[in-house]
Amino acid sequence: MATSLSPVTPAREPASAALRAASLCQDMKANDVVLLDLKGVTDMTDFFVIASGTSDTHVRSVGEHVIAELKKLGVRVHHVEGVQQGRWVLLDFVDFVVHIFHPTLRSFYQLERLWSDAEVVPTE
């Protein structure tokens, strides 16, 4: 018997949830927080939140804060990568993905350049 899965992000507000994730990164003093609208650019997700921490510990704590605070709002993370290492934390909420980088990795991968066709959404 198949089980039905409830949506990870409430279907009515993926944009608001992504904006809240960006705000949570800023609350934790993450650097260079960017929200990219990927609708029309890719089918894999609607938004990327990209941020930098100042150290491995900071990267981890920002990621853990985003998970905990969004969970309180009923937005559950689908998949998490990199929290133990703290170099690149990836939080997949299906409708949006949060990337929190150590600065050296962010400059190496340059996600903003790779997804330069996406619209940058103001976060403040």
How is this structure best summarized?
The chain has 4 helices and 6 strands; from the N terminus they run H-E-E-H-E-E-E-H-H-E. Helix content is 34%, strand content 24%. It is globular.
| Biggest sheet descriptor | 6 strands, mixed
Which architecture per CATH? 2-Layer Sandwich
Determine the strand fraction and express it as a percent band. 15-25%
* The top level CATH class name: Alpha Beta
- The backbone outline, from C-alpha atoms, is globular
Question: What proportion of the residues is helical, as a percent range?
Answer: 25-40%
Give me the side-by-side strand order of the main sheet: 3-4-5-2-1-6
Q: How many runs of DSSP E, i.e. beta strands?
A: 6
The residue-averaged pLDDT reads: 91
User: Can you write the helix and strand succession as a string?
Assistant: HEEHEEEHHE
Structural class designation: alpha+beta
The CATH superfamily appears as Beta Polymerase, domain 2
Task: Compute the number of helices.
Answer: 4
CATH topology, which one? Beta Polymerase, domain 2
Distance between the termini: 46 Å
Low-pLDDT residue intervals, each spanning 5 or more residues: 1-7
Cα gyration radius (Å): 14 Å
Number of self-contained structural domains: 1
